[in-house]
Design brief:
homodimer; 113 residues; alpha+beta; 4-stranded antiparallel sheet
Chain lengths: 113, 113
């Protein structure tokens, strides 16, 4: 998952899941799983989009935007995603934090021009 | 501002400001101003910490954590920060989006070990 576009989100309120992580050394199947999870999440009800960037030193952030908290919960409990989460803990992440957020307000350049 | 640590945030609820941006070409004083703004924000009441990462293609994300919405508003209105915001619009960012969020829940590896 390496999106280099700012997500076109709807008018607030909506939800954001901030996932900050520090990777272990080596790929170990991470990139393929990351692509697969992004494709899978994209098909979930309520998924809006994601922004993601990682530094070569291993530090990275992915923010996924969702229309509802229910969508976030269903995604967290998805069987394939749960397997990926377990592999993340065992293999891919040295450290991580997930933050579930309500986006109350937003502003910026007009992304639709 | 290039922090490569996961911020030690307090028990939720607290606030997050997600700033996603795409940089223009060249530095043009950006790095020095970014360091200065981080130092300045760090002294503001209610500031908890920040996580930041930018891809070489110009796409980057900075998330600042705050204890209160009032702290976020005071920082937005700070005179030096307002000048930096104007320079950002004029010079440094091709596109950006700021999202003000209430962090309702979080979990992850124990960052205090």
């Amino acid at each position: 998952m390496s999106e280099s576009e700012i997500t076109k989100t709807p008018r607030a309120p909506y939800y954001a899941v901030i996932f900050t992580s520090i990777r272990t050394e080596g790929d170990n199947g991470y990139d393929a799983m990351s692509d697969k999870m992004f494709a899978l999440a994209s098909q979930m009800e309520g998924f809006i989009g994601a922004e993601s960037v990682r530094h070569p030193d291993g530090f990275g952030m992915t923010v996924c935007y969702w229309q509802t908290l229910e969508g976030i919960k269903r995604w967290k409990q998805d069987a394939e995603h749960q397997l990926a989460q377990q592999m993340g803990r065992d293999r891919w992440y040295r450290q991580y934090k997930t933050r579930i957020c309500l986006v109350q307000e937003d502003y910026g350049t007009d992304l639709f021009e």
